[in-house]
Protein backbone atom coordinates (compact mmCIF):
# COMPACT_ATOMS: atom_id res chain seq x y z
CA UNK A 1 0.00 0.00 0.00
CA UNK A 2 1.17 3.52 -0.76
CA UNK A 3 1.88 5.64 2.32
CA UNK A 4 -0.96 7.43 4.04
CA UNK A 5 -1.24 11.21 3.96
CA UNK A 6 -0.37 13.11 7.13
CA UNK A 7 -1.40 16.43 8.59
CA UNK A 8 1.76 17.91 7.01
CA UNK A 9 0.40 16.85 3.64
CA UNK A 10 -2.91 18.54 4.46
CA UNK A 11 -1.12 21.75 5.45
CA UNK A 12 0.97 21.64 2.28
CA UNK A 13 -2.20 21.11 0.27
CA UNK A 14 -3.83 24.10 1.93
CA UNK A 15 -0.93 26.33 0.91
CA UNK A 16 -0.87 24.87 -2.60
CA UNK A 17 -4.57 25.37 -3.35
CA UNK A 18 -5.00 28.70 -1.52
CA UNK A 19 -4.55 30.84 -4.66
CA UNK A 20 -7.16 28.84 -6.56
CA UNK A 21 -9.79 27.38 -4.20
CA UNK A 22 -12.49 29.25 -2.28
CA UNK A 23 -12.33 29.39 1.49
CA UNK A 24 -15.99 28.42 1.77
CA UNK A 25 -18.33 30.00 4.33
CA UNK A 26 -19.75 28.32 7.43
CA UNK A 27 -23.50 28.90 7.77
CA UNK A 28 -25.79 28.38 10.74
CA UNK A 29 -29.56 28.31 11.28
CA UNK A 30 -31.35 28.77 14.58
CA UNK A 31 -34.29 26.70 13.36
CA UNK A 32 -32.08 23.80 12.27
CA UNK A 33 -30.31 23.90 15.64
CA UNK A 34 -33.70 23.58 17.29
CA UNK A 35 -34.60 20.58 15.14
CA UNK A 36 -31.24 18.90 15.75
CA UNK A 37 -30.99 19.71 19.44
CA UNK A 38 -27.42 20.86 18.85
CA UNK A 39 -25.56 23.81 17.34
CA UNK A 40 -24.82 22.90 13.71
CA UNK A 41 -22.07 24.55 11.67
CA UNK A 42 -22.44 23.90 7.96
CA UNK A 43 -19.22 23.99 5.94
CA UNK A 44 -20.57 24.90 2.52
CA UNK A 45 -18.46 23.14 -0.11
CA UNK A 46 -21.42 23.69 -2.41
CA UNK A 47 -19.87 27.15 -2.87
CA UNK A 48 -16.47 25.64 -3.76
CA UNK A 49 -15.24 26.04 -7.34
CA UNK A 50 -16.99 23.52 -9.62
CA UNK A 51 -19.66 23.35 -6.91
CA UNK A 52 -18.05 20.62 -4.79
CA UNK A 53 -15.19 19.82 -2.40
CA UNK A 54 -13.68 17.72 -5.19
CA UNK A 55 -11.81 20.76 -6.47
CA UNK A 56 -9.61 20.76 -3.35
CA UNK A 57 -8.18 17.30 -3.98
CA UNK A 58 -7.92 17.63 -7.75
CA UNK A 59 -6.22 21.01 -7.45
CA UNK A 60 -3.73 19.72 -4.89
CA UNK A 61 -2.86 16.77 -7.12
CA UNK A 62 -2.40 18.94 -10.21
CA UNK A 63 -0.39 21.63 -8.45
CA UNK A 64 1.95 19.12 -6.81
CA UNK A 65 3.21 17.68 -10.11
CA UNK A 66 6.67 18.67 -11.35
CA UNK A 67 6.62 20.86 -14.44
CA UNK A 68 7.98 18.04 -16.54
CA UNK A 69 5.36 15.53 -15.45
CA UNK A 70 2.58 18.11 -15.49
CA UNK A 71 3.34 18.99 -19.11
CA UNK A 72 2.14 15.54 -20.18
CA UNK A 73 -1.23 16.24 -18.61
CA UNK A 74 -3.51 14.49 -16.13
CA UNK A 75 -6.16 11.84 -16.67
CA UNK A 76 -9.03 10.20 -14.85
CA UNK A 77 -12.22 8.29 -15.41
CA UNK A 78 -15.25 9.81 -13.76
CA UNK A 79 -18.82 10.68 -14.55
CA UNK A 80 -19.13 13.22 -11.76
CA UNK A 81 -17.70 16.19 -9.92
CA UNK A 82 -14.11 14.92 -9.90
CA UNK A 83 -13.88 15.08 -13.69
CA UNK A 84 -14.96 18.72 -13.76
CA UNK A 85 -12.67 19.57 -10.85
CA UNK A 86 -9.65 17.94 -12.50
CA UNK A 87 -10.44 19.68 -15.79
CA UNK A 88 -10.57 23.08 -14.09
CA UNK A 89 -7.39 22.49 -12.09
CA UNK A 90 -5.59 21.45 -15.28
CA UNK A 91 -6.86 24.50 -17.12
CA UNK A 92 -5.57 26.73 -14.32
CA UNK A 93 -2.15 25.09 -14.58
CA UNK A 94 -2.29 25.24 -18.37
CA UNK A 95 -1.91 21.50 -18.97
CA UNK A 96 -4.13 18.96 -20.75
CA UNK A 97 -6.81 16.99 -18.88
CA UNK A 98 -7.96 13.69 -20.34
CA UNK A 99 -11.26 12.46 -18.99
CA UNK A 100 -12.78 9.06 -19.71
CA UNK A 101 -16.57 9.18 -19.29
CA UNK A 102 -19.20 6.53 -19.82
CA UNK A 103 -21.21 7.33 -22.94
CA UNK A 104 -24.40 7.38 -20.85
CA UNK A 105 -23.17 10.09 -18.46
CA UNK A 106 -25.66 12.91 -17.96
CA UNK A 107 -25.51 15.61 -20.62
CA UNK A 108 -25.07 18.29 -17.95
CA UNK A 109 -21.97 16.49 -16.60
CA UNK A 110 -20.48 16.11 -20.07
CA UNK A 111 -21.09 19.78 -20.75
CA UNK A 112 -19.42 20.86 -17.49
CA UNK A 113 -16.28 18.84 -18.21
CA UNK A 114 -16.16 20.04 -21.81
CA UNK A 115 -16.64 23.65 -20.69
CA UNK A 116 -13.42 23.45 -18.69
CA UNK A 117 -11.58 22.39 -21.82
CA UNK A 118 -10.93 18.74 -21.05
CA UNK A 119 -10.28 16.18 -23.75
CA UNK A 120 -13.10 13.64 -23.30
CA UNK A 121 -13.04 10.00 -24.40
CA UNK A 122 -16.34 8.15 -24.17
CA UNK A 123 -16.54 4.43 -23.38
CA UNK A 124 -18.99 1.71 -22.41
CA UNK A 125 -20.58 2.25 -19.00
CA UNK A 126 -18.68 -0.54 -17.21
CA UNK A 127 -15.77 -0.29 -14.81
CA UNK A 128 -13.71 -2.59 -17.04
CA UNK A 129 -14.28 -0.38 -20.08
CA UNK A 130 -13.49 2.74 -18.08
CA UNK A 131 -10.22 1.31 -16.78
CA UNK A 132 -9.04 -0.09 -20.10
CA UNK A 133 -9.93 3.13 -21.92
CA UNK A 134 -8.07 5.14 -19.31
CA UNK A 135 -5.05 2.85 -19.70
CA UNK A 136 -5.05 3.49 -23.48
CA UNK A 137 -5.26 7.23 -22.95
CA UNK A 138 -2.37 7.15 -20.49
CA UNK A 139 -0.29 4.98 -22.82
CA UNK A 140 -0.87 7.41 -25.67
CA UNK A 141 -0.27 10.65 -23.75
CA UNK A 142 1.92 9.90 -20.74
CA UNK A 143 -0.62 11.70 -18.58
CA UNK A 144 -0.60 11.22 -14.78
CA UNK A 145 -3.68 9.48 -13.42
CA UNK A 146 -5.44 11.30 -10.58
CA UNK A 147 -7.85 8.91 -8.89
CA UNK A 148 -11.05 10.53 -7.53
CA UNK A 149 -10.31 9.47 -3.94
CA UNK A 150 -7.78 6.68 -3.44
CA UNK A 151 -4.79 8.99 -3.84
CA UNK A 152 -2.82 10.55 -0.99
CA UNK A 153 -2.68 13.95 -2.75
CA UNK A 154 -6.44 13.93 -3.24
CA UNK A 155 -7.13 12.87 0.36
CA UNK A 156 -4.80 15.59 1.66
CA UNK A 157 -6.61 18.15 -0.48
CA UNK A 158 -10.03 17.09 0.80
CA UNK A 159 -8.67 17.38 4.35
CA UNK A 160 -8.28 21.15 3.90
CA UNK A 161 -12.04 21.64 4.30
CA UNK A 162 -11.84 20.33 7.87
CA UNK A 163 -8.75 22.47 8.45
CA UNK A 164 -10.80 25.57 7.60
CA UNK A 165 -13.77 24.36 9.63
CA UNK A 166 -11.69 23.81 12.77
CA UNK A 167 -10.16 27.23 12.25
CA UNK A 168 -13.55 28.93 11.84
CA UNK A 169 -15.50 27.21 14.64
CA UNK A 170 -14.15 26.56 18.11
CA UNK A 171 -15.26 23.89 20.53
CA UNK A 172 -16.70 21.38 18.07
CA UNK A 173 -17.65 18.03 19.60
CA UNK A 174 -18.13 16.20 16.29
CA UNK A 175 -17.78 16.55 12.53
CA UNK A 176 -20.01 14.63 10.16
CA UNK A 177 -19.45 14.12 6.43
CA UNK A 178 -21.00 11.93 3.77
CA UNK A 179 -19.00 8.92 2.59
CA UNK A 180 -18.79 7.46 -0.91
CA UNK A 181 -15.27 6.47 -1.92
CA UNK A 182 -14.05 8.02 1.31
CA UNK A 183 -11.85 10.87 0.09
CA UNK A 184 -13.66 13.57 2.03
CA UNK A 185 -14.16 11.40 5.11
CA UNK A 186 -10.56 10.19 5.27
CA UNK A 187 -9.15 13.66 4.61
CA UNK A 188 -11.35 15.01 7.40
CA UNK A 189 -10.17 12.20 9.68
CA UNK A 190 -6.48 12.92 9.02
CA UNK A 191 -6.97 16.59 9.90
CA UNK A 192 -9.13 16.04 12.96
CA UNK A 193 -7.05 13.20 14.40
CA UNK A 194 -3.97 15.42 14.31
CA UNK A 195 -5.40 18.77 15.36
CA UNK A 196 -8.47 18.01 17.47
CA UNK A 197 -8.31 14.36 18.51
CA UNK A 198 -11.23 14.71 20.91
CA UNK A 199 -13.57 15.73 18.09
CA UNK A 200 -15.58 12.72 16.95
CA UNK A 201 -15.56 12.03 13.19
CA UNK A 202 -18.78 10.45 11.99
CA UNK A 203 -20.11 9.74 8.50
CA UNK A 204 -23.49 9.35 6.90
CA UNK A 205 -24.06 6.87 4.09
CA UNK A 206 -27.17 5.98 2.09
CA UNK A 207 -28.68 2.68 3.28
CA UNK A 208 -28.93 1.72 -0.39
CA UNK A 209 -25.16 2.12 -0.83
CA UNK A 210 -23.80 1.28 2.61
CA UNK A 211 -20.63 -0.52 1.60
CA UNK A 212 -18.43 1.74 3.76
CA UNK A 213 -20.50 0.96 6.86
CA UNK A 214 -20.28 -2.76 6.08
CA UNK A 215 -16.56 -2.47 5.34
CA UNK A 216 -15.96 -0.88 8.75
CA UNK A 217 -17.99 -3.64 10.42
CA UNK A 218 -16.22 -6.42 8.50
CA UNK A 219 -12.74 -5.00 8.94
CA UNK A 220 -12.08 -5.30 5.22
CA UNK A 221 -13.27 -3.51 2.09
CA UNK A 222 -16.72 -4.69 1.07
CA UNK A 223 -17.30 -3.52 -2.51
CA UNK A 224 -20.37 -1.51 -3.46
CA UNK A 225 -22.62 -3.73 -5.57
CA UNK A 226 -25.63 -2.33 -7.43
CA UNK A 227 -26.04 0.67 -5.13
CA UNK A 228 -29.39 2.44 -5.38
CA UNK A 229 -29.72 5.94 -3.95
CA UNK A 230 -30.65 9.47 -4.90
CA UNK A 231 -27.23 10.48 -3.49
CA UNK A 232 -25.44 9.90 -6.77
CA UNK A 233 -22.07 11.09 -5.48
CA UNK A 234 -21.88 8.22 -2.99
CA UNK A 235 -22.06 5.12 -5.19
CA UNK A 236 -18.40 4.10 -5.14
CA UNK A 237 -16.49 1.65 -2.94
CA UNK A 238 -13.71 2.55 -0.51
CA UNK A 239 -10.08 2.24 -1.65
CA UNK A 240 -7.19 0.80 0.34
CA UNK A 241 -5.95 4.23 1.43
CA UNK A 242 -9.33 5.63 2.42
CA UNK A 243 -10.29 2.39 4.16
CA UNK A 244 -7.07 2.34 6.20
CA UNK A 245 -7.63 5.89 7.46
CA UNK A 246 -11.35 5.46 8.08
CA UNK A 247 -10.85 2.22 10.04
CA UNK A 248 -8.41 3.99 12.32
CA UNK A 249 -10.04 7.32 12.95
CA UNK A 250 -13.76 7.25 12.23
CA UNK A 251 -16.14 6.65 15.14
CA UNK A 252 -19.01 5.31 13.09
CA UNK A 253 -20.94 5.34 9.85
CA UNK A 254 -24.70 5.84 10.01
CA UNK A 255 -26.90 4.44 7.24
CA UNK A 256 -29.80 6.73 6.34
CA UNK A 257 -32.87 6.01 4.23
CA UNK A 258 -33.83 7.76 1.01
CA UNK A 259 -36.66 9.49 2.87
CA UNK A 260 -34.24 10.76 5.48
CA UNK A 261 -31.91 12.07 2.76
CA UNK A 262 -34.71 13.89 0.94
CA UNK A 263 -36.06 15.31 4.20
CA UNK A 264 -32.61 16.59 5.19
CA UNK A 265 -32.03 18.05 1.72
CA UNK A 266 -35.28 19.92 1.89
CA UNK A 267 -34.48 21.25 5.37
CA UNK A 268 -31.18 22.64 4.07
CA UNK A 269 -32.86 24.28 1.08
CA UNK A 270 -35.65 25.75 3.21
CA UNK A 271 -33.76 26.85 6.27
CA UNK A 272 -30.26 27.65 5.01
CA UNK A 273 -31.61 28.91 1.64
CA UNK A 274 -28.82 27.20 -0.22
CA UNK A 275 -28.76 24.59 -2.95
CA UNK A 276 -27.10 21.28 -2.10
CA UNK A 277 -27.11 17.97 -3.88
CA UNK A 278 -28.58 14.88 -2.21
CA UNK A 279 -25.12 13.56 -1.29
CA UNK A 280 -24.58 16.66 0.89
CA UNK A 281 -27.83 16.07 2.74
CA UNK A 282 -26.64 12.64 3.84
CA UNK A 283 -24.39 14.30 6.43
CA UNK A 284 -27.27 16.21 8.03
CA UNK A 285 -29.49 13.15 7.80
CA UNK A 286 -26.91 11.18 9.78
CA UNK A 287 -26.77 13.86 12.48
CA UNK A 288 -30.57 13.96 12.70
CA UNK A 289 -30.67 10.16 12.89
CA UNK A 290 -28.61 10.27 16.08
CA UNK A 291 -25.16 9.74 14.60
CA UNK A 292 -23.72 12.57 16.66
CA UNK A 293 -25.91 12.06 19.73
CA UNK A 294 -24.48 13.80 22.79
CA UNK A 295 -22.49 16.34 20.76
CA UNK A 296 -23.49 19.94 21.44
CA UNK A 297 -21.53 21.58 18.62
CA UNK A 298 -21.46 19.68 15.35
CA UNK A 299 -19.68 20.53 12.09
CA UNK A 300 -21.58 19.30 9.03
CA UNK A 301 -19.70 19.21 5.74
CA UNK A 302 -22.02 19.92 2.81
CA UNK A 303 -20.11 18.27 0.01
CA UNK A 304 -21.57 19.88 -3.10
CA UNK A 305 -24.35 21.71 -4.87
CA UNK A 306 -24.48 20.21 -8.35
CA UNK A 307 -28.07 19.11 -8.66
CA UNK A 308 -30.39 18.92 -11.62
CA UNK A 309 -32.84 21.72 -10.94
CA UNK A 310 -35.34 20.17 -13.34
CA UNK A 311 -35.99 17.13 -11.22
CA UNK A 312 -36.27 17.90 -7.54
CA UNK A 313 -37.35 14.99 -5.38
CA UNK A 314 -40.30 16.90 -3.97
CA UNK A 315 -41.37 19.03 -6.93
CA UNK A 316 -44.54 19.04 -8.93
CA UNK A 317 -45.10 20.97 -12.16
CA UNK A 318 -45.39 24.71 -11.79
CA UNK A 319 -48.71 26.47 -12.22
CA UNK A 320 -49.66 30.06 -11.48
CA UNK B 1 -46.27 64.46 3.84
CA UNK B 2 -44.24 63.11 6.71
CA UNK B 3 -40.55 63.98 6.60
CA UNK B 4 -38.22 61.87 4.53
CA UNK B 5 -35.58 59.68 6.18
CA UNK B 6 -31.97 60.82 6.01
CA UNK B 7 -28.62 59.08 6.10
CA UNK B 8 -28.54 59.79 9.85
CA UNK B 9 -31.73 57.75 10.18
CA UNK B 10 -30.11 54.93 8.22
CA UNK B 11 -27.04 55.02 10.48
CA UNK B 12 -29.25 55.04 13.58
CA UNK B 13 -31.19 52.10 12.16
CA UNK B 14 -27.97 50.19 11.55
CA UNK B 15 -26.98 50.60 15.19
CA UNK B 16 -30.48 49.72 16.38
CA UNK B 17 -30.82 46.48 14.41
CA UNK B 18 -27.19 45.34 14.73
CA UNK B 19 -27.86 43.05 17.71
CA UNK B 20 -30.74 41.34 15.93
CA UNK B 21 -30.24 41.34 12.15
CA UNK B 22 -27.69 39.39 10.13
CA UNK B 23 -24.95 41.23 8.30
CA UNK B 24 -25.60 39.27 5.12
CA UNK B 25 -22.79 38.00 2.88
CA UNK B 26 -21.88 39.35 -0.55
CA UNK B 27 -21.39 36.55 -3.10
CA UNK B 28 -19.79 36.61 -6.53
CA UNK B 29 -19.63 34.25 -9.49
CA UNK B 30 -17.07 34.30 -12.27
CA UNK B 31 -19.54 32.72 -14.68
CA UNK B 32 -22.27 35.27 -13.94
CA UNK B 33 -19.74 38.08 -14.41
CA UNK B 34 -18.97 36.64 -17.83
CA UNK B 35 -22.64 36.52 -18.74
CA UNK B 36 -23.26 40.06 -17.52
CA UNK B 37 -20.09 41.58 -18.90
CA UNK B 38 -19.51 43.25 -15.52
CA UNK B 39 -18.39 42.30 -12.03
CA UNK B 40 -21.54 41.57 -10.02
CA UNK B 41 -21.67 41.69 -6.22
CA UNK B 42 -24.76 40.00 -4.83
CA UNK B 43 -25.95 41.26 -1.45
CA UNK B 44 -27.79 38.20 -0.17
CA UNK B 45 -30.77 39.35 1.87
CA UNK B 46 -32.15 35.87 1.26
CA UNK B 47 -29.93 34.97 4.24
CA UNK B 48 -31.47 37.72 6.39
CA UNK B 49 -33.65 36.69 9.32
CA UNK B 50 -37.11 35.65 8.11
CA UNK B 51 -35.45 35.14 4.72
CA UNK B 52 -35.84 38.71 3.43
CA UNK B 53 -34.59 42.31 3.78
CA UNK B 54 -37.99 43.13 5.33
CA UNK B 55 -36.63 42.26 8.77
CA UNK B 56 -34.34 45.31 8.67
CA UNK B 57 -37.17 47.82 8.38
CA UNK B 58 -39.57 46.04 10.70
CA UNK B 59 -36.89 45.62 13.34
CA UNK B 60 -35.87 49.28 13.12
CA UNK B 61 -39.49 50.38 13.53
CA UNK B 62 -40.12 48.09 16.50
CA UNK B 63 -36.87 48.95 18.27
CA UNK B 64 -37.39 52.69 17.85
CA UNK B 65 -40.68 52.76 19.80
CA UNK B 66 -40.67 54.09 23.37
CA UNK B 67 -41.29 51.43 26.01
CA UNK B 68 -44.72 52.84 26.73
CA UNK B 69 -45.85 52.82 23.12
CA UNK B 70 -44.18 49.50 22.42
CA UNK B 71 -46.05 47.84 25.27
CA UNK B 72 -49.32 48.26 23.36
CA UNK B 73 -47.86 46.27 20.49
CA UNK B 74 -47.48 46.75 16.76
CA UNK B 75 -49.87 46.01 13.92
CA UNK B 76 -49.88 45.70 10.15
CA UNK B 77 -51.77 44.17 7.30
CA UNK B 78 -49.69 42.00 5.01
CA UNK B 79 -49.79 38.65 3.36
CA UNK B 80 -46.06 38.48 2.85
CA UNK B 81 -42.58 38.81 4.29
CA UNK B 82 -43.30 42.03 6.18
CA UNK B 83 -45.83 40.30 8.45
CA UNK B 84 -43.35 37.60 9.44
CA UNK B 85 -40.60 40.18 9.92
CA UNK B 86 -42.76 42.37 12.14
CA UNK B 87 -43.87 39.34 14.15
CA UNK B 88 -40.27 38.30 14.77
CA UNK B 89 -39.14 41.81 15.68
CA UNK B 90 -42.04 42.11 18.14
CA UNK B 91 -41.22 38.73 19.66
CA UNK B 92 -37.60 39.81 20.14
CA UNK B 93 -38.78 42.95 21.92
CA UNK B 94 -41.36 40.97 23.89
CA UNK B 95 -44.42 42.90 22.70
CA UNK B 96 -47.58 41.80 20.87
CA UNK B 97 -47.77 41.81 17.06
CA UNK B 98 -51.22 42.02 15.45
CA UNK B 99 -51.30 40.95 11.83
CA UNK B 100 -54.28 41.30 9.54
CA UNK B 101 -54.08 38.77 6.70
CA UNK B 102 -56.45 38.00 3.87
CA UNK B 103 -58.16 34.67 4.49
CA UNK B 104 -56.80 33.38 1.18
CA UNK B 105 -53.15 34.01 2.06
CA UNK B 106 -50.90 31.04 1.38
CA UNK B 107 -50.83 28.45 4.16
CA UNK B 108 -47.04 28.66 4.33
CA UNK B 109 -47.24 32.43 4.96
CA UNK B 110 -49.88 32.02 7.66
CA UNK B 111 -47.78 29.35 9.32
CA UNK B 112 -44.65 31.54 9.29
CA UNK B 113 -46.43 34.47 10.93
CA UNK B 114 -48.11 32.22 13.48
CA UNK B 115 -44.79 30.53 14.26
CA UNK B 116 -43.38 33.88 15.39
CA UNK B 117 -46.25 34.22 17.85
CA UNK B 118 -48.26 36.97 16.14
CA UNK B 119 -51.95 37.46 16.80
CA UNK B 120 -53.56 36.97 13.36
CA UNK B 121 -56.92 38.39 12.27
CA UNK B 122 -58.23 37.11 8.95
CA UNK B 123 -60.32 39.28 6.61
CA UNK B 124 -61.68 39.39 3.10
CA UNK B 125 -58.98 39.64 0.43
CA UNK B 126 -59.62 43.27 -0.50
CA UNK B 127 -57.62 46.37 0.38
CA UNK B 128 -60.74 47.96 1.94
CA UNK B 129 -61.33 44.95 4.19
CA UNK B 130 -57.67 44.85 5.17
CA UNK B 131 -57.61 48.52 6.10
CA UNK B 132 -60.90 48.50 8.03
CA UNK B 133 -59.92 45.33 9.89
CA UNK B 134 -56.56 46.85 10.77
CA UNK B 135 -58.33 50.00 12.03
CA UNK B 136 -60.52 47.86 14.33
CA UNK B 137 -57.50 46.01 15.67
CA UNK B 138 -55.70 49.28 16.37
CA UNK B 139 -58.78 50.77 18.03
CA UNK B 140 -59.08 47.73 20.28
CA UNK B 141 -55.40 47.40 21.21
CA UNK B 142 -53.74 50.79 20.83
CA UNK B 143 -51.04 49.09 18.76
CA UNK B 144 -48.73 51.16 16.52
CA UNK B 145 -49.13 50.56 12.83
CA UNK B 146 -45.94 49.71 10.94
CA UNK B 147 -46.55 50.05 7.22
CA UNK B 148 -44.60 47.61 5.02
CA UNK B 149 -42.79 50.38 3.13
CA UNK B 150 -44.30 53.87 3.33
CA UNK B 151 -42.80 54.59 6.74
CA UNK B 152 -39.58 56.54 7.36
CA UNK B 153 -38.42 54.03 10.00
CA UNK B 154 -38.95 51.15 7.60
CA UNK B 155 -37.20 52.92 4.72
CA UNK B 156 -34.25 53.79 6.95
CA UNK B 157 -34.04 50.16 8.03
CA UNK B 158 -34.03 48.90 4.45
CA UNK B 159 -31.27 51.42 3.67
CA UNK B 160 -28.91 49.52 5.96
CA UNK B 161 -28.45 46.78 3.34
CA UNK B 162 -26.86 49.32 0.98
CA UNK B 163 -24.77 50.68 3.87
CA UNK B 164 -23.28 47.22 4.34
CA UNK B 165 -22.85 46.70 0.61
CA UNK B 166 -20.94 49.97 0.15
CA UNK B 167 -18.82 49.02 3.13
CA UNK B 168 -18.06 45.55 1.76
CA UNK B 169 -17.39 46.40 -1.89
CA UNK B 170 -15.33 49.34 -3.09
CA UNK B 171 -15.60 51.10 -6.41
CA UNK B 172 -19.18 50.20 -7.33
CA UNK B 173 -20.53 51.98 -10.38
CA UNK B 174 -24.17 51.03 -9.86
CA UNK B 175 -26.54 49.30 -7.46
CA UNK B 176 -29.69 47.58 -8.70
CA UNK B 177 -32.64 46.44 -6.56
CA UNK B 178 -36.14 45.21 -7.29
CA UNK B 179 -39.02 47.63 -6.69
CA UNK B 180 -42.51 46.88 -5.41
CA UNK B 181 -43.75 49.40 -2.84
CA UNK B 182 -40.33 51.01 -2.96
CA UNK B 183 -39.06 50.50 0.59
CA UNK B 184 -35.85 48.74 -0.42
CA UNK B 185 -35.26 50.98 -3.42
CA UNK B 186 -35.83 54.24 -1.55
CA UNK B 187 -33.76 53.12 1.44
CA UNK B 188 -30.96 52.19 -0.95
CA UNK B 189 -31.29 55.58 -2.66
CA UNK B 190 -31.06 57.50 0.63
CA UNK B 191 -27.86 55.67 1.56
CA UNK B 192 -26.21 55.89 -1.83
CA UNK B 193 -27.12 59.53 -2.48
CA UNK B 194 -25.46 60.51 0.80
CA UNK B 195 -22.42 58.27 0.82
CA UNK B 196 -21.63 57.49 -2.80
CA UNK B 197 -23.47 59.99 -4.98
CA UNK B 198 -21.66 58.89 -8.13
CA UNK B 199 -23.03 55.36 -7.81
CA UNK B 200 -26.06 54.94 -10.06
CA UNK B 201 -29.20 53.53 -8.38
CA UNK B 202 -31.33 51.47 -10.77
CA UNK B 203 -34.35 49.24 -10.20
CA UNK B 204 -35.90 46.28 -11.93
CA UNK B 205 -39.67 45.82 -12.02
CA UNK B 206 -41.84 43.12 -13.58
CA UNK B 207 -43.42 44.34 -16.84
CA UNK B 208 -46.69 42.89 -15.54
CA UNK B 209 -46.55 45.15 -12.45
CA UNK B 210 -44.66 48.20 -13.72
CA UNK B 211 -46.50 50.89 -11.79
CA UNK B 212 -43.27 52.31 -10.33
CA UNK B 213 -41.75 52.75 -13.78
CA UNK B 214 -44.92 54.43 -14.97
CA UNK B 215 -45.06 56.58 -11.84
CA UNK B 216 -41.53 57.80 -12.45
CA UNK B 217 -42.41 58.61 -16.07
CA UNK B 218 -45.66 60.37 -15.13
CA UNK B 219 -44.18 62.33 -12.23
CA UNK B 220 -46.98 61.15 -9.95
CA UNK B 221 -47.95 57.89 -8.28
CA UNK B 222 -49.66 55.57 -10.74
CA UNK B 223 -51.38 52.84 -8.72
CA UNK B 224 -50.77 49.18 -9.42
CA UNK B 225 -53.92 47.71 -10.95
CA UNK B 226 -54.35 43.96 -11.40
CA UNK B 227 -50.63 43.22 -11.49
CA UNK B 228 -49.71 39.81 -12.87
CA UNK B 229 -46.24 38.45 -12.20
CA UNK B 230 -44.43 35.51 -10.67
CA UNK B 231 -42.56 38.07 -8.54
CA UNK B 232 -45.20 38.09 -5.82
CA UNK B 233 -43.30 40.47 -3.56
CA UNK B 234 -43.57 43.28 -6.10
CA UNK B 235 -47.32 43.71 -6.55
CA UNK B 236 -47.85 46.86 -4.48
CA UNK B 237 -47.94 50.54 -5.46
CA UNK B 238 -45.48 53.20 -4.35
CA UNK B 239 -46.34 55.38 -1.35
CA UNK B 240 -45.81 59.12 -1.06
CA UNK B 241 -42.55 58.76 0.88
CA UNK B 242 -41.01 56.11 -1.34
CA UNK B 243 -42.14 57.95 -4.48
CA UNK B 244 -40.59 61.22 -3.32
CA UNK B 245 -37.22 59.57 -2.70
CA UNK B 246 -37.28 57.47 -5.84
CA UNK B 247 -38.16 60.45 -8.06
CA UNK B 248 -35.19 62.35 -6.69
CA UNK B 249 -32.45 59.76 -6.60
CA UNK B 250 -33.18 56.82 -8.87
CA UNK B 251 -31.69 56.84 -12.37
CA UNK B 252 -34.20 54.52 -13.95
CA UNK B 253 -36.55 51.58 -13.58
CA UNK B 254 -36.25 48.74 -16.08
CA UNK B 255 -39.30 46.58 -16.83
CA UNK B 256 -38.45 42.90 -17.31
CA UNK B 257 -40.57 40.08 -18.69
CA UNK B 258 -41.63 36.96 -16.84
CA UNK B 259 -39.23 34.94 -18.98
CA UNK B 260 -36.38 37.26 -18.06
CA UNK B 261 -37.25 36.91 -14.37
CA UNK B 262 -37.36 33.13 -14.50
CA UNK B 263 -34.13 32.98 -16.52
CA UNK B 264 -32.37 35.24 -14.00
CA UNK B 265 -33.75 33.25 -11.06
CA UNK B 266 -32.45 30.05 -12.56
CA UNK B 267 -29.02 31.59 -13.20
CA UNK B 268 -28.80 32.58 -9.53
CA UNK B 269 -29.81 29.11 -8.35
CA UNK B 270 -27.42 27.39 -10.74
CA UNK B 271 -24.38 29.63 -10.51
CA UNK B 272 -24.53 31.08 -6.99
CA UNK B 273 -26.06 27.87 -5.58
CA UNK B 274 -28.47 29.84 -3.43
CA UNK B 275 -32.23 29.95 -3.19
CA UNK B 276 -33.90 33.23 -4.05
CA UNK B 277 -37.51 34.09 -4.68
CA UNK B 278 -38.59 35.45 -8.07
CA UNK B 279 -38.71 39.04 -6.75
CA UNK B 280 -34.96 38.85 -6.06
CA UNK B 281 -34.23 37.73 -9.58
CA UNK B 282 -35.85 40.89 -10.96
CA UNK B 283 -32.74 42.85 -9.96
CA UNK B 284 -30.39 40.59 -11.91
CA UNK B 285 -32.85 40.48 -14.82
CA UNK B 286 -32.72 44.28 -14.97
CA UNK B 287 -28.92 44.28 -15.03
CA UNK B 288 -28.86 41.65 -17.78
CA UNK B 289 -31.45 43.66 -19.76
CA UNK B 290 -29.02 46.56 -19.93
CA UNK B 291 -30.28 48.58 -16.96
CA UNK B 292 -26.75 49.10 -15.69
CA UNK B 293 -25.06 49.29 -19.09
CA UNK B 294 -21.61 50.87 -18.87
CA UNK B 295 -21.13 50.00 -15.21
CA UNK B 296 -18.15 47.75 -14.58
CA UNK B 297 -18.87 46.93 -10.92
CA UNK B 298 -22.52 46.40 -10.04
CA UNK B 299 -24.12 45.67 -6.67
CA UNK B 300 -27.23 43.50 -6.98
CA UNK B 301 -29.52 43.30 -3.96
CA UNK B 302 -31.19 39.89 -3.71
CA UNK B 303 -34.25 40.76 -1.67
CA UNK B 304 -35.34 37.40 -0.28
CA UNK B 305 -35.41 33.64 -0.45
CA UNK B 306 -38.92 32.67 0.59
CA UNK B 307 -40.11 30.55 -2.27
CA UNK B 308 -42.43 27.59 -2.43
CA UNK B 309 -40.08 24.71 -3.20
CA UNK B 310 -43.00 22.59 -4.42
CA UNK B 311 -43.69 24.73 -7.46
CA UNK B 312 -40.56 25.86 -9.22
CA UNK B 313 -41.14 27.63 -12.51
CA UNK B 314 -38.93 25.20 -14.40
CA UNK B 315 -39.54 21.94 -12.59
CA UNK B 316 -41.07 18.71 -13.72
CA UNK B 317 -41.97 15.75 -11.53
CA UNK B 318 -39.07 13.79 -10.18
CA UNK B 319 -38.26 10.35 -11.51
CA UNK B 320 -35.23 8.17 -10.85
Molecular structure report:
Chain A is of the alpha/beta class. Chain A has 2 domains: 7-52 and 152-302, 3-Layer(aba) Sandwich (Rossmann fold); 55-145, Rossmann fold (3-Layer(aba) Sandwich), CATH 3.40.50. In chain A, 46% of the residues lie in helices and 15% in strands. Chain A has 13 helices and 10 strands. The first copy, chain A, has helices at residues 7-17, 30-36, 54-63, 67-70, 81-93, 107-115, 127-141, 152-168, 183-195, 211-218, 240-249, 258-272, 278-291; strands at residues 26-27, 39-44, 74-77, 97-102, 119-123, 144-145, 174-178, 200-206, 252-256, 297-302. A 6-stranded mixed beta sheet of chain A has the order 1-2-10-7-8-9, with helices on both faces. Chain A has a 4-stranded parallel beta sheet with strand order 5-4-3-6, with helices on both faces. In chain A, β7 (174-178), α9 (183-195) and β8 (200-206) form a beta-alpha-beta unit. Chain A is globular, with a radius of gyration of 18 Å. The A-B interface holds A 25, 27, 46-47, 51, 230, 266, 269-270, 273-276, 305, 309-320 and B 25, 27, 46-47, 51, 230, 266, 269-270, 273-276, 305, 309-320.
